[in-house]
Each structure stands twice: as structure tokens, then as C-alpha cells.
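Limitations
The C-alpha cells in this dataset are predictions for the assembled complex, not deposited experimental models. Users should treat interface geometry with appropriate caution, especially where small molecules or nucleic acid strands are included. An illustrative entry is reproduced here so readers can see what is and is not provided.
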Amino acid sequence: MIINKILNLGSRLFVPIALIMGVIFYYTGTDGDFFGENVGATYYVVHPVSLVIIILSVYLSIIEIIKWRKETLRNSHKIKSNPELFKVMKSVLIFIACVLVYLFLLKYVGFIVSTFIYLIITFYAFKMRKIIPLLAFSIGLTLLAYIIFNVFFDVPLP
Amino acid sequence: MLELNGLISGIQLLGDWQVILFIIIGVTVGIIVGAIPGLTASTGMALLITLTYTMDPMVALAFLGAVYAGASYGGSITAILLNAPGTPSATVTTFDGYPMTQNGEASRAMGLSIGSSVLGGFFSYGAMLLILFPLAAFALKFGSPELFLLAVFGLTIIASMKGEEGGIGGFSKGIVAGLFGVLLGTVGIATTGTIRGANNLDYLIDGIPIVPVLIGFLAFSEMIYLIEEYTKEKKSPKSNQSMKKVIEGIKEVFKHPITFIRSSLIGLFVGTLPAAGATVASFLSYNESKKYKTKSKVKLGEGAPEGVISAESANNASTGGAMTTMLALGIPGSESTALIMGAMILHGLTPGPQLFTDQLDITYAIIIALLLSQVALLVLAVVYGNYFSKIINIPIQYLVPTVTVFCVVGAFAVRNAWFDILLMFIFGIIGYFMKKNNYPVIGVVLGLVLGPLIDREFITTSIRYSGDYTIFLTRPISLILVIMIVLAITYPYIKTIFRKIFRKKENA
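Predicted assembly:
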């Protein structure tokens, strides 16, 4: 129950928080001055935009928190256990984890091997575990992707 | 209005057999992509961009345009047969399409859909020929202040629409999405030479590459979203279709000229608005049609042909409107057009007024290619409509990993950079949470595309006019744009106020 509430709040606040972090990332990633004479017009658009983003993000966060409180208060009267949200988030997390592994592999190993492994772990994670279709599809798709992209269309592969 | 020279050279550009071939392939792929629930037109196109990298630009554009046209129709197949729209734009088609199937009139509904889609497309692409060039000529007169305001206007429209749905919260979400996109757009070397936001990453010096971000936002985020809706029942469509009835359905569209024209006009107009795409167009068109009586005794919502016609002609007509805005002004009119725009930039073409002075023939060629794709659509849909409905039930467990692989390849292939795959991934996650919480992703896309423009033109304006910002109000076109922006922002509030006034009058 508690996990659900936290997840719910987290999901709602993700965007405003990500936006604020984005702005921070932007500013910390820039060398040099932001204000002053030598800078000139470079930041005329950036500064107001960033400011508005931060203001609105804070505003939206507050609204989302208020909405969240209202909803969780209302729901505690109804006995809704709703394990759904946790399950859903779990599936999403597993998927993202698989993709992260894929990305990591892609950097150090080649396309064919990485894709093959990725497909296998994804199917396995989502409970499609019959060996023959699993392997067949993984090999098939990897080869198909390779052929279509590399051979047919001359698109570079990692 | 029509420049014959340009038209002829445009036609010549299309003489290449590859173009024709890829138009046909494009329409086929588009229909399939559109028909598969879970793959939207923009997701599919995001993936297909990768394939176009090594194509001749004209072939690539004809291909993507054909996919766009095909997908606008394809969504209606499952919408009609299974009550499950293959693309969001086909949602409205379910309102009358599915009841018709339930009444045993599936073929008729398919025919109506094909007819409205094809004719709606013809209508809007024909309109493109008329509107496009005057619009572009007009846009050529735009100077820095006007370009800046135009881009701002594009962003405010999105916020305004979100504001209609969600009040101040919705409006804020719209604005913040657009501004975020703009901020992203300013990353990299500025016109003044300073490097902004790049965090000493070589890969960002030239700015954030748009294609991986688009793929992440539109395609990959959809995949994550689909994982959420993991379990779904698989329905199999009834296969009793008769081609004769399909053709009759197509002819039936002609019996409702008023509905068709009205819906197509709405579609065309809505399409030209930045970020309002096929889905909005079809809803508005359907809402309009509700106000009128149907010819038969069947009401709208229970299987009336007018319902299918309103929905499908509007969503196909919107493609022409969106392409017009994109080509003439450089502002994408919908997600799919944003992708086509990305592809154009990739191939060295810059959408916007310059396109018309420099490459008039390509512009004409694109329009004609679109018209040709409608012809291909007609033929393919009639002949293969039946079979399409059988191949589309791909379970999510297969669909998602496959598309993910395509996303990865697509993101990588732009610059041969693993970094871009990472970008796609990050923005995919951001896009997912945005979609979940009702932030307009198209706002970020628009901001990203327009950001450099906004930044550059504002800096130019302030330098040129030495910081005299009244220039925005003294130049005539600028003034009009400023008024439009203000209207767009205040429109939802004005509407509410008017309603209150009217209610008081009624009650009095």
C-alpha cells in the first residue's frame, strides 16, 4: 500500500523534478559568465526560459502533491489494495533494466551479439521461456535486423 | 498560384522508378504500421527514418510521405473491425465503425473508410497546391522579429490547447514542455560563439541531435508505455469481407458531399495548426457532425456512415495541412510532420520559406508524391484490406523488443555515436513520464525544433534594433502575431467568461 503511494507520487513528480535538474545540468555545463557586458545577447532567451521552467516546475510539483494527498486520502476510505501499480512499475523497471544492459553491451561488444543477448534476456524476463521459439526469434530478429540495415540499406550498426 | 515550371520539374523528379516503388512500399508499410495497435504513425516513421539515410532525398521523402498517408488510413482497420484503434487518430472511427461491424456491415465500413481517407487526402494535397505557395511567399517577408514571434505562437497554441483540457495546470504543462524543448534547442554553440549547456561533452557541441531525441520521445517512450498495458486480450477479426461491398462503401462517400467537405476542411485547418494533428482533427470533425441529422435513420454513434466519413476524411485531410505548415513555415504541424522535417534536415533540405526560392521543384515533387500515394492507398487498401486485418495481432511481448532494437539502430545511425543511443534512452524515459502525466510531448518536440530559431532570431532582433523591443509592436506583421499570441493564451479564459455571461442571460 505504502509502496503504491510512493510510486504514484514519484511518477507524478518525475517530470517537474527532471525539468529542474535539466536546467541545473544546463547551467553547470556551461563555461564562462552568464551575466555582464562581454556576454551580450547570448542568454537573452535562455535565462527567461530557464526561470519560467523552474517557476512552473515548482508550481506543478506543488499542485501534484496536493492532488496526490487528496487522492490517497480518498482512497484510504475505500479498501483498494491495487497491487496493479506496483506490478506495472515492476514490469517497466525490468524492461528498462534489460535495455540498459543492451546499451552497455552495445558499447563494448558488437551489434549482433548485444542484440541477441538483449532479446533473450527480455523474453526471459517477460516469462516467454519456451526454448525453441525464444532462440528462434532472437536469432531470427537479430539476423533480420542486420540484413535489413547493414546489407540492404547500408546503415551503420554499432 | 501554380508555377508551371516548378510543377514540371517536380514531376520530372518523380520519374525515377525507385520513387514509385517506394511510394507503394511506403503506403503498404504505413497501412500495416497504422493498423498495429501500439504502433502509432509517428513511432513507425521514427523507425523508418533510419532506413532512409542512404536513400536519395526525393525517394526518402516520397517514402515517408507515403507512410504518413498510409498510416493515417491504417489505424481505421482495427478500429472498425476490433474496436481497437491502430493509431490514436482512428479513435473516432471506432465510434461508428465498430457498430457497423457489429451490424454485419464491416465491408461497408471499410469501404467508407478507404473512400474518405483517399478523398480526404486528395482534398488536402490539392489544397496544398493552392495554399502553399502564397503562404510561403508571405512568409518570405518575415524578418527576425516575425520569425521569433511565429515560433512563440506555435508554442503557445500547444499550451492553449492543453489549457482547454486541464485548466491552469494543463496550460502550465504545455508551456513548460515547450520551454524545455527550447532550452534543449539552445544547447551547443550559439550564434555568438559561446558554448552553452554542453557539459564538455564533444557530442553536444553541435547541439542535441534531433533524430535520436525524436526516436526516444515518440517511439521508445511508446514502448515503455506499452509495457504498462502488458496484458491484453487478443481478438481475432471476422474474415467475411466482400470486395464488392467495400467498393460500394467507397462510392457511398460521394453520397455525403457536405459531410465530407466539412470534415475535410476541419481536418485541413486543424492540421495546419502546430501540434494539432489527426487525432484532434477527427474529434473536432465528429463533434461538428453530431450537430447535423444523418440521412438514414441511423444516428451518429450507432453505425452511421457520416460518422466514419467525418472521422477518416478529417484525419487524412489533416496530413496535408500539417505538411503545409511544415514546408512553408518550417513549423511542424504534427508529430509525424516533425519526423519528416527531421528527415529533410538530415538529407540537407531546410523546410521553410527558403525551400521555395531554392528548391521549388522538390516542393512540388513532394506534393505530387503525396497525391500519388493516395492513389496507391486506394488500390492497396481495397485489394489487401482483408489480409491486413489478419497480420496485425502481434503480441506486445514481441512487438516491444523488436521496436526497441529498431530504435537503437535508428538513434545510432545518425552520427555513428553510441552517445546518441543513450540520448534516445534518456528522452524515452522522460517522454514516458510525460505521457503518463499528461504533458504534451509534441510541445517538447516543437520547442526542440524551434528553439534554435527562437534563440537566433531573438538575438538577431535585439542586436539589429539595438535592444529596442518596441519593434515587435511597430512592425505590422509582428503586431498581428503578438495579438494572435495573446489571443491564444487568453482564449480559454475568455471562453469561460463568455459562458458565464451567457448563462446569466439565460437564467435571467
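Some entries come with short summary sentences. For this one: The mean pLDDT of chain B is 82.
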